[in-house]
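User: Here's a chain of 162 residues. Predict its fold as tokens.
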Amino acid sequence: MKRLLTITVALLIATFAVALPAAASPPQDVSGAFTVVSVIPTSVREAGNNCIIEADVTFAFTGGIDGAFTSLPLRIVHHGPCDPLGPAPENFQGHGAFVGTVNGVAGSFDFNFRGKVDAAGNAEAKLTVRQGSGGLEELHGAITLTGITGVGGTYEGRVHFD
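Assistant: Prediction complete.
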């Protein structure tokens, strides 16, 4: 009877050890710089007092995130006329894919991207990791980018692996 109880307890421990998911990694800080590599407008149209621009955009990252992302398409609402396209506040949103490394781990991930630009061209955006592959398969996180529209700037955020 004692032996049966020992075997049963051992089996229960083994079952729970296999069935319990691994804990998520502790959050990791990421920071560095980004450069706007290209902005290729694919559509421009008037919408009331706004100009709606859709563009394919590519950014290059260095630092904790090292690689490039492409947003296809990025939808920009320019709060002013299309012609002439002068300084005005903007809001933008899109989604896309990143390929490279995050804190030395290689892979890719899909993301959502949204932000705003003031009339002086100062931009702030939030990138949210949606789903990864390769070494970044279990990556989650949010990154804030600040800089000058069409040029680049810096980023910082937190990521973790499930």
